[in-house]
Write a structure and sequence with these properties.
CATH architecture: Sandwich
Oligomer: single chain
Distance between the termini: 64 Å
Strand content: over 45%
Helix content: 10-25%
Shape: globular
Number of helices: 1
Number of strands: 10
Order of helices and strands: HEEEEEEEEEE
């Protein structure tokens, strides 16, 4: 009897510590949606750099088919934690161009991570890699 209880408790504890296989995304309407799409299938590159008092993000697309908008998001938390709060900096319409650029001028000192979410309406299609910048002071 004790052996069964220990096995059940061990199974419960191990299942409680596994992380979900889907990535949690903060959408423009502040709803959280689990996305099973592969990450970074459409992005050719994604870079950020400090420019003046802000951060400029540039990215290029391999294909823009099925993408209507981009959601530029940032977090001051651990970007690899699925429970991090990603805040939408802005949205940008997708056009016929293959490269895009936006500057976030509302940044505070600290470690800031950015990502781009390619959207089809309100449905996430693809997520870029994460790029991190460090601002010591303004």
């Amino acid at each position: 009897m004790k052996t069964k209880i220990i096995i059940i408790a061990a199974a419960f504890i191990s299942s409680a510590w596994t992380t979900p296989s889907t990535e949690s995304l903060r959408l423009p309407d502040n709803k959280t949606e689990n996305v099973k799409a592969k990450q970074n299938q459409s992005f050719a590159f994604f870079r950020t750099h400090r420019q003046g008092r802000g951060i400029t993000a540039t990215w290029g697309m391999i294909s823009t088919s099925g993408i209507t908008d981009f959601s530029i998001q940032r977090t001051y938390e651990d970007p690899n934690d699925i429970y991090s709060n990603w805040i939408e900096v802005c949205t940008m319409s997708c056009n016929n161009s293959r490269s895009f650029k936006v500057t976030d001028t509302n940044v505070l000192p600290g470690t800031i991570s950015y990502r781009i979410v390619a959207m089809n309406g309100f449905t996430p299609v693809d997520v870029s890699d994460i790029s991190t910048e460090r601002i010591v002071q303004h």
